[in-house]
Structure to design on (741 residues):
């Protein structure tokens, strides 16, 4: 019964736990029980004030756990894989994982978002404009908005739904533990559902959880709206400044035009003006790209932040600083990962790196075309092809799609990227020209603004 | 390269303001320049303007020189963490039509050649090079390379006919900070500010003053990255025979094309589409 000591303080959750363990005890004793027998015990317990003492939970422990502990109850802990606490700082993910996870369907929720997802009222995003796509209602929608609007399954939920054989080896108080615990919790919840017990209590706690989630979503939405507003203000200021600068330059040029007397001065003047144009042009290009990133970053940051990917203590979390070569074998997955499927093939995604299950452990593989991820690697380079922005990272091109996610697509012809992916091979054509090949994509070296770059070509 | 473009703008603006300040009373601590847009108040400390002007004028009169530059450029990650990249450049220049730059940086060795007829860029370790015809003077070549391919030659402003140029757009404020220590000596340290860039300059205290250090802070970019360059080994009588400026491609080097950059459309660049190149020119 020691496990019960760690059960939450909330009475409804304790009750559920009590029922669960009582059920197991009865089963272990080989006794036959019926729903009627079980419910016979239920009414008195619901009214017992000392229920907390009954299951051995002190007030102090209850206080430490707080409200979130109750919400976490029946899922992970009843499943027997209890996180030790502390290591996983965000309880919201656990709350989302607990209860009801088995009923969710990511596909269904995505469709729900498309038809009824919430969108904030704001200006059209740079992404929409830059991509030439129509902007419906003008605003961006965050990942959480989509989840809120549709009950979309979270990454943790999906992790919980992974078959046990796909789950990584057990660790201590890791995110994987939480996922495994959540999976077991789902199973536990299913048992409870079969018994037909505690549905009312479950509904109540679920409403609490929904309310808590809603509060946080509201907070984040507000913050996001604020940030969008600030960025919009900044952009408007920049646009105004650009206009001012253009006007000033024009005025100055007109003044100078009248004052030109020597040819050398005129040449210098032309050069100056050309340089000004280029500087403005480049500056605006940088700003446009920055806008694109900022527009998309709210969603990306929400996802990464929510999953703890910015944890300073996370080894290997320094995006873009280092990567694993394709073919590298690892025994366990990184601390954080997202399970995805491309067709029927399972992958685990983390920081732009894809891992596939191997005979023993996992192996690093190329980004599979068709993979859909919540967010591209944050350190990707934005490259444009026919005015369509792609995020390029280590040979993979991510394209924002209408579902609100990022798809790995085939390398678009004409894309000019600043570096070759690790592990490329040199290939010489029949004409003697050297190309670089990686993952069936050919890259042709070119100079781009004086820097060596690589252009995607199809021969 | 873009960083250096900004440097060009600021340096040139400095000189322009310095020249203007020459006509104002020397006693004035702050100089308000005339014939500027009325909404912009520019105030450049007279001492700062004087040292900048002197260094620019000295450079302008040199027929040939070489100099070594050690540059550092910050890359700032989304997390806020900074990574610094270094680049060494040895520049050799002979007026009016010879230029060579030997660069070593994270991607290996790169060389620029201009021989009065063409420009060649080669990445030695990658065994590739590009070449295009160029106008007959350095000044015109710099314009042409930028206009056609967006190529900004390294430390281009040092070799300009007007090293500090006649730009008047950028700098609004300037201060003389005093004689400060750097790399074994004491130099006149100045700070200039434009809406986008803060520029610090260290100039030697001698009859023919030299630029010794330049630091730019990009104030409007995320994390305000800095680009710094320390200039050393100034030589005003270098070996400048023609062969030094002529590129002879190695037998195993491959000629590659240049991306033809989308040129700025006057004062109103096309909206929204990220401004990447569309085509290449062999």
């Amino acid at each position: 019964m020691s496990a019960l000591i760690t059960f939450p303080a909330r009475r409804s959750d304790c009750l559920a736990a009590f029922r669960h363990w009582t059920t197991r005890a009865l089963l272990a004793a080989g006794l036959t029980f019926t729903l009627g027998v079980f419910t016979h015990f239920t009414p008195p317990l619901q009214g017992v004030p000392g229920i907390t003492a009954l299951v051995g939970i002190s007030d102090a422990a209850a206080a430490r756990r707080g409200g979130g502990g109750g919400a976490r109850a029946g899922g992970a802990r009843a499943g027997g894989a209890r996180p030790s606490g502390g290591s996983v700082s965000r309880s919201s993910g656990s709350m989302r994982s607990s209860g009801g996870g088995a009923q969710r369907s990511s596909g269904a929720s995505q469709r729900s978002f498309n038809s009824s997802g919430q969108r904030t009222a704001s200006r059209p995003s740079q992404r929409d404009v830059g991509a030439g796509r129509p902007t419906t209602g003008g605003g961006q929608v965050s990942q959480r908005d989509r989840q809120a609007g549709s009950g979309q399954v979270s990454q943790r939920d999906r992790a919980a739904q992974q078959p046990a054989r796909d789950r990584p080896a057990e660790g201590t108080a890791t995110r994987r533990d939480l996922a495994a615990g959540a999976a077991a919790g789902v199973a536990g919840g299913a048992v409870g559902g079969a018994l037909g017990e505690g549905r009312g209590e479950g509904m109540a706690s679920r409403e609490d959880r929904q309310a808590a989630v809603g509060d946080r979503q509201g907070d984040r939405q507000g913050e996001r709206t604020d940030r969008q507003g600030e960025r919009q203000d900044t952009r408007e200021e920049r646009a105004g400044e650009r206009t001012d600068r253009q006007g000033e330059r024009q005025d100055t040029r007109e003044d100078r035009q009248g004052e030109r007397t020597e040819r050398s001065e005129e040449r210098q003047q032309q050069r100056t003006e050309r340089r000004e144009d280029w500087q403005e042009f480049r500056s605006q290009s940088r700003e446009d790209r920055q806008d694109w990133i900022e527009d998309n970053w709210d969603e990306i940051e929400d996802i990464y932040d929510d999953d703890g990917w910015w944890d300073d203590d996370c080894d290997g979390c320094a995006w873009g600083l280092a990567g694993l070569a394709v073919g590298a074998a690892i025994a366990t997955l990184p601390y954080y990962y997202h399970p995805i499927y491309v067709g029927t093939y399972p992958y685990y995604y983390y920081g732009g790196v894809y891992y596939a299950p191997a005979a023993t452990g996992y192996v690093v593989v190329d980004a599979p075309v068709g993979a859909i991820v919540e967010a591209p690697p944050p350190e990707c380079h934005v490259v444009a092809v026919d005015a369509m922005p792609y995020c390029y990272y280590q040979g993979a091109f991510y394209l924002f799609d209408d579902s609100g996610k990022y798809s790995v697509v085939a390398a678009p012809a004409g894309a000019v990227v600043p570096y070759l992916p690790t592990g490329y091979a040199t290939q010489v054509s029949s004409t003697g020209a050297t190309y670089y090949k990686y993952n069936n994509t050919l890259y042709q070296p070119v100079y781009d603004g004086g820097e060596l770059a690589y252009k995607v070509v199809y021969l | 390269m873009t960083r250096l473009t900004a440097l060009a703008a600021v340096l040139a603006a400095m000189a322009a303001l310095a020249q203007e300040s020459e006509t104002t009373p020397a006693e004035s601590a702050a100089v308000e320049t005339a014939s500027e847009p009325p909404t912009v108040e520019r105030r450049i400390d007279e001492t700062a303007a004087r040292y900048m002007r002197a260094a620019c004028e000295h450079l302008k009169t040199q027929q040939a020189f070489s100099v070594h530059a050690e540059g550092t450029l910050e890359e700032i990650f989304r997390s806020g963490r900074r990574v610094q990249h270094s680049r060494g450049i040895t520049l050799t220049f002979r007026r009016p039509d010879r230029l060579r730059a030997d660069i070593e940086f994270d991607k290996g060795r790169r060389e620029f050649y201009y021989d009065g007829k063409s420009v060649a860029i080669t990445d030695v370790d990658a065994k590739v090079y590009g070449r295009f015809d160029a106008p007959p003077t350095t000044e015109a070549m710099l314009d042409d390379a930028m206009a056609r391919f967006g190529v900004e030659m390294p430390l281009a402003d040092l070799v300009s006919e007007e090293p500090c140029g006649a730009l008047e757009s950028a700098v609004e404020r300037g201060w003389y900070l005093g004689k400060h220590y750097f790399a074994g000596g004491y130099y006149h340290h100045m700070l200039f500010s434009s809406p986008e860039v803060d520029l610090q300059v260290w100039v030697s205290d001698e009859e023919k003053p030299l630029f010794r250090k330049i630091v730019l802070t990009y104030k409007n970019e995320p994390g305000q990255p800095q680009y710094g360059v320390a200039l050393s080994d100034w030589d005003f009588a270098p070996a400048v025979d023609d062969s030094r400026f002529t590129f002879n491609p190695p037998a195993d080097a491959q000629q590659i094309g240049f991306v033809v950059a989308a040129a700025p459309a006057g004062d109103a660049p096309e909206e929204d589409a990220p401004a990447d190149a569309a085509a290449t020119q062999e």
In short: Chain B has a mean pLDDT of 80. Residues 66 and 266 of chain B are 35 Å apart (CA to CA).
